Amino acid sequence: MVNKIFYKPAVCLLGLLLSGMALASPKIESWVSEKGAKVLFVQANALPMIDVRVVFDAGSARDGDMPGLAAFTNNMLTEGAGEWDANALAERVENHGIRLGSGALRDMGWVSVRTLSEPETREIAIDTLSKILGQPQFNEGAFERVRQQMQIGLRRALQSPSSVASQRFYSTLYADHPYAHPSGGTEESLKAIKLADLHDFHRLRYVAANAVIAIVGDLDRKAAEALVEQVTAGLIRGQHAPALPAVPEVKGGVLRQTFPSSQTHIYVGQSGVSRHDSDYFPLYVGNHVFGGSALVSMLGEEVRNKRGLSYSVYSYFSPMRAKGPFLMVAQTKNKQADEALSVMQDTLKAFVTDGPSGELLEASKRNIMGGFPLKVASNRKIVEYISMIGFYDLPLDWLDTLVDKVGAVTVEQVRDAFQRRVDPAKGIAVVVGGK
Length: 435
Known about the structure:
Number of helices: 15
Structural class: alpha+beta
Number of strands: 13
Strand order of the largest sheet: 1-2-8-3-7-6
Number of domains: 2
Order of helices and strands: EEEHEEHEEHHHHHEHEEHHEEHHHHHE
Helix content: 40-55%
Shape: globular
Largest sheet: 6 strands, mixed
CATH architecture of the largest domain: 2-Layer Sandwich
Oligomer: single chain
CATH topology of the largest domain: Cytochrome Bc1 Complex, Chain A, domain 1
CATH class of the largest domain: Alpha Beta
């Protein structure tokens, strides 16, 4: 689960001309703390604010045989820490205008804080963050309350054909890989998880050597170094989580599941790319032409605009530490499901064979490059980006070179990458809906 916090835009730390020429970008400084945490820091003094995001290799891929354990542990971090129970902790941050966020996905778990840089408030915020990470209470009453909340969320998800289709797709594509099971757990696993399991997971994964700390805001390098040591004060050094196994090869096929709904949800895809994949940019830009730009994409044109088979149809690559999926997703009337699926598959076959036209590719590249400034238009967005850079061990100049790499993609590169990496015959199709 993710505690979603919304902030007003702060300062744009990276500006880019719509032509794709980069302006001066912020300097990302990086070092390793005394306890082994990787740190990425951007000094930004335009606003009296500091954003800190601490990311651990502690997502659901580390659940082992207890699906939901990573999410459960992460949810419990803000349910009491140090000397404060859940209510006292909430009152403490609210009284000082501090924003906390937390969440867990397949690859990672994180906790974030946003605070004024004024010394007294900053000290309270960072002390609170340090206690949340290093001294969570794991109170029995809060444990049972969070368990019930997760169970309710799971049951609600099972009432959604989209959620059912998504999970069926992941469980089929990833088979016995750690990405296969739902991050939120299963009915069986949530019942079986004990408080001691959370203690064990926290002790193993919420350690300094398994952490990336991203900082953006109104402080200098010396103050940032002191902040890092304070944040990690309650953490043991520990070890980084081991490498994930390779994603298995899975044969294609169509899986159908009847569901009492007026709309059928279709998920079609296969194994895609990891964060370090050499084909990342040709596949990313090519998909923007194919289905990533929604209604004006080729997929949107064929499925929605020409035939009226779906109001919402799109595709995307989801790069993760191991290979994330390539997915086409659509919702359609039950009686049109077979036709919609067929058109989606045929459109992909045509794109893999022919690639995009030069005109469409250039339009997509301009769209991506022109929209990039909005993606880095606040301290909050910058801290998310640099935490991602640190977590996936990407080059520190990743943001600086992104626009140039997008602009350099050619039709030939897109066609070559899709022909080597996307095989329509191996795609898994999951169709969930009424008849």
